[in-house]
Amino acid sequence: MNAPTAPDWRDDIFAVLQAHEIKQVYHVPDAGHSRLIESCQRSNAMRTLALTTEEEGVALAAGAWLGGQRSVLLMQSSGVGNTINLMGLTKTMRLPLLTLITMRGDYGEFNSWQYPMGQGTPKVLEAMGVLLYSVDTAEEVKATVDAAARSAFNGGQAVAVLLRQKLIGIKNFGKK
Amino acid sequence: MSTATLRRRPLVKTILEGATDDLLVIAGLGSSNWDVTEAGDRPLNMPLWGAMGATVAMGLGLAIAQPTKRVLVITGDGDMLMGMGSLATVAAQQPHNLAICVLDNEKFGETGNQATHTSARNQGPTDSGAGADLSVIARGCGIADSATIRGEAEVAQLVADLRRKSGPVFRLVKVMVEKLEFVMPPQDGAHLKDRFRQALLGQA
Asked: Which value does ipTM take for this structure?
């Protein structure tokens, strides 16, 4: 049980998701999103679904929208590659999609294995017609996620918010 | 060689007979789509023309959004094999209103009837599978109510379970390999989605 109480940009995201009446939250375990995921799990207004692979989240979002519910897909940049084929659904079915992506292999990353997908993330999403909003500082988070949700659910777009590693912090595995 | 005797088209027609607005159907790409469409194209069908491996997850998202409706996923063994993880995702949620029917002919029908992993092993260099049992896999993923249907005598119970039994329900139905006419629904995905939402929610 870890219940940090200091205000945090992840709490800003939670507030935006509540304001936009997000009912289904899809996620895989993720350190960057963990505080947000726990807030969603504790919410009575949201249903959280743990995935076996991120692509399930795109299919779930399509099903939720068919049934009249809004959803959000929380993932790491390393999971983005798993979703690319299904991202095509957002064009074929003209579906709204909101995804919040914690970036790895992005800014001072220690683990070289994270760089290929991290650096490829904006390019492959763009190739599939997903709109990209990028956030580098905590102050921008709330307004950006709010704008992304508006583009998705009012404007009918597939939108990804890239939560950059500069915002999340560099994972250094104890190295100086 | 599969010993299946059930024919998919009359079976799907029986499963969907008398469908009301309380039944929401997601059909997997290829043969399952054509089967469901021959039974009767309707706005509350979402027949997929692609998105292989996504059918069950789409059904789950819909089932959670519409807890008072019955959601029935009808798909094939190839599609199910590509999205096996979604069975565990379903089991984690235990949706009471979701039923999954996999029509297993042990072949990739749309690409020339190559063996899927549900085909038996040791059937020669070009027709061997793994003997994978999707019904056992579903149960192993945590869907306790999982069974295999092989004969005509079991069909009435199959239909009752798929339409009404508290879910999640998983049924694997062994069906014959057949060459059947394509019966196609509208192809435009945005249209299919809009007509579904219009019929269900009164708004596109």
From this structure: 0.96
